[in-house]
Structure formats: C-alpha cells, structure tokens
C-alpha cells in the first residue's frame, strides 16, 4: 500500500516538474522574455513609433536609454512609462535619456559616450529617428536633400559606428534600424526620403555581413504607413515644414502594433522584415522581377499627383 502511494507521489512530483519546465520554456519563447534587464537604446523616442517601442521594451523589463532632440518631451515619455509600471510582470526600470540632434554628426560621438555611461553597455540599438519629405526634385534645394540624408542616414550610421566597437569588444549586441518600404522602392515626390532609406538599407546589409562573425545580428525593418506625425513633421523642397497629416498616414497601422512587431523581430533576430500589406509587397516584387511595369506604375502615380504648377 505504502509503495503504491509512494509511486503516486513520485508521479505527481515528476508531472509538476514537467509542467514547471514547460512553463519556463514557454516563458522564454515569449517575445520580450529575453529582454529582462537588457540595455535598449531607442532614437526618436519622443513620439510615434519610437515612443511605442519605448513602451513595449519598458514593459518587457529592458533598461532603456531614450534619445531625441527635446529633453522635455523625452522626460514626458519617462513619466508616462514609470506611471504605467505595475507591480506584476517583469521588473521595470526608470528609463535614462540622452538629448542630441542626429543631423549634427559632430556631436554624435559625445552622445554615444553619454549613452554608454548610462549602463556601461548597449545590448540593443534601435535606430528609429527619422524625418520625411514632400516635394518635386525640380523645386527642391540641394540643402534639403542633404539635410534629410544627414538625419536619416549619416546621423544613424554615425551613432551605430560610435556604439559598435563596444559591442564588438563584448562580442554581444544587436543593431536594429527602422527603414521603410521606401528603402526598397522609390515613389514619386519622396526623393530625399526614399534615397535616405535606400542608403540605410544598403549600409545595414553590408554591416550585417561584416559583423555576423562577432555574433551581432543586424535587423532592418521596413514598415508601410504608420499612424504617427511623420507626414506632419516632413520637410518640403524649400525647407519649410509640410505640416499636414496625410490620409495615407492617418490610415496607417497602429504604432503599438508595429512596436510589437519590432519586439518580435528583435526576439527572433530577424535579418530583414517588411511590415506592410499586399500592395507594397507586390510593388517591391515588381521592382525586381518586372521593373518596366513598376516604372510605368510610378509614372502614372506621378502624373496623378502632379500639381498644375509642375506642368
Ligand atoms: N509613419 C510612417 O508612416 C512610417 C515611418 N517610418 C519610419 O519610422 C521612424 C519613426 O517615425 P515616426 O514615429 O513615424 O515619426 P515621428 O515624426 O512621430 O517621429 C520621428 C522621431 O524622430 C526624431 N527625430 C527627427 N529628427 C531628428 C534629429 N535630427 N535628431 C534626433 N531625433 C530626430 C523625432 O524626435 P524629436 O523631434 O523630439 O527630436 C521623433 O521622435 C522613422 O525612421 C520613419 O522613417 C517608416 C515607415 C512608415
Ligand atoms: C498590375 C498590378 C498592379 C499592382 C499595383 C502595385 C503597385 C502599388 C504601388 C504601391 C506603392 C506603395 C507605397 C508605400 C509607401 C510606404 O508605405 O511608405 C512608408 C513610409 O515611409 C511613409 O512615409 P511618407 O512620408 O511617404 O508618408
């Protein structure tokens, strides 16, 4: 009788241990579980997608360094995140902030030093900051083409290059960049923006191949339209602010969903992710497989969007 009971107890203990093990494996497999205590740097964290990324990585227990040009707006994000922290779930940390302008590449090395001082290391760098543009090439000052490139491309690669040596030294880290569908296809009246995103794609594809042996993954994320203030903040051909919330932007994906997708891509160490619907995906496919048709479609799009003064 005692032996039968002993066997029952053993079975119960083994079953409980099995359930616990399975639970632990499932928790580890959950996107975000691997981010507890990880040091995650997010540029452009004051608004839009960057702010939502800050929220999901904060909730996952990451130690955040939030970057942007406006210290007050970054502090506002810190306050919102700390106020939303709950006692259940992963342990969360009050984010640090570093204020700098990515387009002023001379200051980026100093900013990178400040970032490294926050926690002594960077585990994930999310290059998210960016600015868009509206205009036709004929009326666009070269200085505008250069300015968009300074923020979206040179600022981003300057920060990446400044933080990379510490990752290579530790043989650990992860570099993420938020590009755009327009890093894969160029659409009319977006020359400065599309060019900066194409350059971004190329640079990070090179980087991925070059640092793979150091165990540092590179993730390029190319979203379609997201419901943020990107179009409002866009710059026009003469350098003035566009200031309009475009219909395409307003009808875009919820930035909270895109931020979750960024978390998933980091968890999976994905190399290249397009977060867009069937039309942009088809356009990307056509650009490579049937370029003549793609160019026709873009010419027709340009014709429809052309303003009378452009004729
Ligand atoms: N919204 C969309 O439809 C899509 C957006 N994307 C990309 O997502 C990323 C985030 O944009 P989104 O959230 O939509 O737009 P927002 O305009 O809301 O956010 C842009 C962020 O970039 C920061 N930023 C802009 N210029 C600089 C600069 N010179 N130095 C430092 N920070 C700067 C801004 O911070 P601050 O002004 O406080 O300095 C702001 O936090 C961009 O790279 C964009 O290209 C990609 C595809 C679609
Ligand atoms: C015969 C087959 C027809 C198939 C039609 C496919 C071609 C459709 C064209 C689709 C173009 C998609 C453009 C998507 C642009 C985009 O999502 O950009 C994301 C952004 O970065 C937005 O920035 P913006 O400043 O432009 O708002």
UniProtKB/TrEMBL annotation:
Keywords (A to Z) from UniProt: Membrane, NAD, NADP, Oxidoreductase, Transmembrane, Transmembrane helix
Domain Ketoreductase span(s) in chain numbering: 38-229
GO terms (BP aspect): lipid metabolic process
SMART domains recorded: PKS_KR
Listed GO CC annotations: cytoplasm; membrane
InterPro entries: KR_dom (IPR057326), NAD(P)-bd_dom_sf (IPR036291), Sc_DH/Rdtase_CS (IPR020904), SDR_fam (IPR002347)
The UniProt record lists the keyword NADP: yes
GO molecular function: oxidoreductase activity, acting on the CH-OH group of donors, NAD or NADP as acceptor
Transmembrane segments: 6-26
Stored Pfam families: adh_short
S-adenosyl-L-methionine in keyword set: no
Tree of life domain: Eukaryota
Protein task: Putative oxidoreductase.
NCBIfam families: PRK06181.1
Family from the record: Belongs to the short-chain dehydrogenases/reductases (SDR) family.
Name of protein: Dehydrogenase/reductase SDR family member 7B
Species this chain originates from: Cyclopterus lumpus (Lumpsucker)
Organism placement in taxonomy: Eukaryota, Metazoa, Chordata, Craniata, Vertebrata
